[in-house]
Amino acid sequence: MKILPQIGVIFNLDKCIGCHTCTVACKNIWTNRDGAEYMYWNNVETKPGIGYPKQWEDQDKYKGGWTVKNRKLRLRLGGKASILLNIFWNPWLPSMEDYWGSKGPWTYTYEDLHTGKEMKTQPVARPKSLITGEEDIQLDWGPNWEDAGAGIDRTARLDPNYKKLSPEEQEAYLEYKNVFYFYLPRICNHCLNPACVAACPAGAIYKREEDGVVLIDQNKCRGWRFCVSACPYKKVYFNWRTGKSEKCILCYPRLEAGQAPACMWSCVGRIRYLGVVFYDLDKAYEALTAPDHKLVEAYRSAILDPFDDDTIKEARAQGIPESWIEAAKRSPFYYMAKKWEIALPLHPEFRTFPMVWYVPPLSPVQTVMEKNGYSTPEEWLPKLDELRIPMKYLANLLAAGNEEEVKKALRRLIALRIYRRSLRVEGKPNVEVLEKVGLTVSDAKRMYRLLALAYHHERFALPTTHTEKATVPYMHQGFAGFTEKMPKKEWHKQPVGGR
Fold first, then answer.
1. To 5 degrees, how large is the angle CA 175–CA 176–CA 180?
2. In degrees, to the nearest 5, what angle opens at C-alpha 21 toward C-alphas 52 and 455?
3. pLDDT by residue (tens digit) across 399-410?
4. CB atoms within 10 A of CB 450
5. In 74-106, which positions are buried (b, 16+ CB within 10 angstroms) versus exposed (e)?
6. By the 8 A CB rule, do 223 and 237 touch?
7. What CATH number is given for 1-94+143-482 in this structure?
8. Tell me: the pLDDT tens digits for 351-399?
9. Would you say residue 413 has pLDDT above 80?
10. Are the C-beta atoms of 271 and 263 separated by less than 8 Å?
């Protein structure tokens, strides 16, 4: 058993209100400079929709992530030969138009509001290109163009998750009375098997052993941008001013001090959770090559129980600090993803083993519960014409099409609501509803605490980082990296955190 400590993140979609406070916090700290105008390391999308950049989920277009052939992982981009043949012309890159429309990122002529001549009409700040300086430009796309469902009557048909619905279902959900949407916050997933690391010809991207954060060595980056294509989540960006690639660093200076990243610290809805999670590296490859409908189950099987005596013993033998073992026991990621199974990975079929998982949205189900009653678990979930968010859509987004995984999570979330209602309204705990979905009263109490009332230290179970104990294992160069693999005896000669 090779234990790999990681920082795992949970986003609760049932609570996200789409306020973009997280985006503002990240933008002000990390990407408020020349060459990074169009970058949003953290963004909040509205689903259904084609997202930012346009159609980032369509891997037939961008060739991101991994595929399995003969039980072996292969980059969709192809092997070394394919990448080298296209090294001076990468045909699978998103263009600036995919991010910010035909005119690129823009600002407004705010100076007109302060220095303009006296007029009888209200002064107006006109759109102005941040790239060319051209004013009065025509705006036709942006990072929040689909915010709160705007224009999805046109763009939803290009959403890969939406396209997998039947034609009848698609038309039904494009009608005004049946339209649905929810918010999907996204950051770099700091994957266990990052495709960006494997695709980089320069070996500039690495995964830190001590906490799993994926970083880009700016001194090694040569701007080939295959990392942009290989990332199926399109969370690597090219800085046109410096000629280097950049991405979310999970605010690792804050992590090392035991503090939450800025986007999570500032979250108004308190939907973000972060903690230590232990993976069995020996099971990772087997999990990554599982069939699509078993991927979520396979990913969970690689997550270790931090309360297991053998796991604790092995962690100590491998030099994992005691503070990290204790943090893993308090980690909300372990409870939501592994123990309660209410969190799911974003597009597990990309086979990057993402470290950001999502609690699926319930809204709205209250009217359905009142209509059908609480008699059996099967009746808690509505049919196609009763649930505003289609089960199939959530399954395509979070479970590689496996609807049972989504139903399991939603049943447990609904059971928790019924249990809490029985306590507060009826004064008599309905334990039976918990037993039907495989939860205990203890599970319900802790789940309610985390999802509804958690304090800062409960949402973020973070120890300080012990970088002095870090090494550079082979796996962190990916399964198809270009750099020569380093002999184990040479690890100690390398800088802490990677090559």
1. 90
2. 125
3. 999 999 999 999
4. 18
5. bbbbeeeeebeebeeeeebebebebbbbebbbb
6. no
7. 3.30.70.20
8. 999 999 999 998 665 455 555 554 454 454 444 446 678 889 999 999 9
9. yes
10. no
Q: Please count the residues of the chain.
A: 499
Q: Residue 370: its pLDDT value, please?
A: 54
Q: Say if CB 195 and CB 480 are below 8 A apart.
A: no
* Mean pLDDT computed over every residue of the chain: 87
Q: Are 25 and 266 in contact (CB under 8 A)?
A: yes
pLDDT in tens, 163-178: 888 888 888 888 877 7
Percent of the chain with pLDDT over 90: 64
CB 306, CB 334: distance < 8 Å? yes
Dist. CA 78–CA 32, nearest whole Å: 34
Contacts of 234 (CB under 8 A, 6+ apart): 52, 53, 56, 62, 64, 94, 228
> Confidence band (pLDDT; 50, 70, 90) for 123?
confident
Q: Which two tokens stand for residue 490?
A: 């040479």
Q: How far is CA 458 from CA 152, 260, 327, 346, 370, in A?
A: 37, 12, 10, 24, 33
